[in-house]
Design brief:
With about 90 residues, the protein is α+β, with helices and mostly antiparallel strands. It has one domain. It has 2 helices and 5 strands. The strands form 2 sheets. Strands 1-4-5 form a 3-stranded antiparallel sheet. The chain has a two-stranded antiparallel sheet with strand order 2-3. The radius of gyration is 13 Å and the shape is globular. The structure holds zinc ion. The site of zinc ion has 9 residues, from strand 5 and helix 1.
């Protein structure tokens, strides 16, 4: 997931959308919900990304299972399910 990433679990103060294309929930992050904010630096540019707690959890699990994979070849943020489908086919 790039040269450095920073992930923080925060509580939403307003509505956000989960950045995962096929969110395991409804994509909606409501005020008061916990979500994971990921910021980082990749290919010379900064990015930030929001994931609902469930998708973030899934990302963690996938990284644990596929830990032998180079970070650049791992599941991209937002396309976890597409990546998994490819990896498992
Ligand atoms: Zn989600």
């Amino acid at each position: 997931m790039g040269e450095f990433t920073n992930r923080r679990t925060v509580t939403a103060r307003k509505h956000h959308q989960c950045g995962e294309n096929k969110c395991v929930r409804t994509k909606e992050i409501k005020p008061g919900d916990q979500y994971v904010r990921i910021t980082g630096h990749h290919d010379g540019s900064f990015f930030h990304f929001k994931l609902c707690i469930r998708c973030a959890d899934l990302h963690c699990k996938v990284w644990t299972v596929f830990k032998y994979i180079h970070p650049d070849e791992g599941p991209p943020l937002g396309d976890l399910f597409w990546w998994l489908k490819e990896a498992l086919s």
